[in-house]
Amino acid sequence: MLYTLSRSPYACDLAELLRTAQPGDDLLLLADGVIAGLNGSPAARAFGASHLTLHALENDIAARGLSAHFSPNFAIISYTDFVRLTEKQPQQMAW
Predict the structure, then answer these.
(1) Of 2, 4, 12, 74, which is closest to residue 37 (Cα–Cα)?
(2) Which residues pair with 53 in a beta bridge?
(3) Are strands 53-57 and 92-94 parallel, antiparallel or unpaired?
(4) What transmembrane ranges does the database entry give (predicted)?
(5) Which domains does the chain have, with CATH numbers?
(6) How many angstroms separate the CA atoms of 80 and 67, rounded?
(7) pLDDT digits (tens, 9 = 90+) for 43-56
(8) What is the pLDDT of residues 34-86, one digit of tens each?
(9) Staple 73 to which of 30, 48, 51, 66, CB 3.0 to 4.6 Å?
């Protein structure tokens, strides 16, 4: 399963996402969801302790000026890599 988080971590139930996720699942942060990847944030710590494979969309991180503050636990990917994730994980759930 590919989970996509496009909303601020303060506007959604991240605990439920973590309870739903299974080993082998991927998480992609995009749009305002990239806020969840800020280094040292509660959301980044929770995701870092999970079994999810973590990704974040490079353009959305750069657009918000967060590149220097982003957690190293996330692979920063391009739109092309996003397409590859959708091929790898045909089932998706948007948060």
Answers:
(1) 74
(2) 26
(3) unpaired
(4) none
(5) 2-94 (3.40.1260.10)
(6) 19
(7) 999 999 999 999 99
(8) 999 999 999 999 999 999 999 999 999 999 999 999 999 999 999 999 999 99
(9) 48
- What is the four-CA torsion angle of 21, 27, 30, 36, rounded to 10 degrees? 70
Task: Locate 80 and state its tokens.
Answer: 């092309």
Strands (E), 6-74: 26-29, 53-57
Range list of H helices, the chain: 14-20, 42-48, 58-63, 79-88
Tokens for 14, please give them: 């991240």
Angstrom CA distances, 44 to 3, 25, 77, stand at 15, 16, 17
* Residue 42 · residue 71 · CB < 8 Å: no
Angle at CA 22, nearest 5°, toward 24 and 58? 60
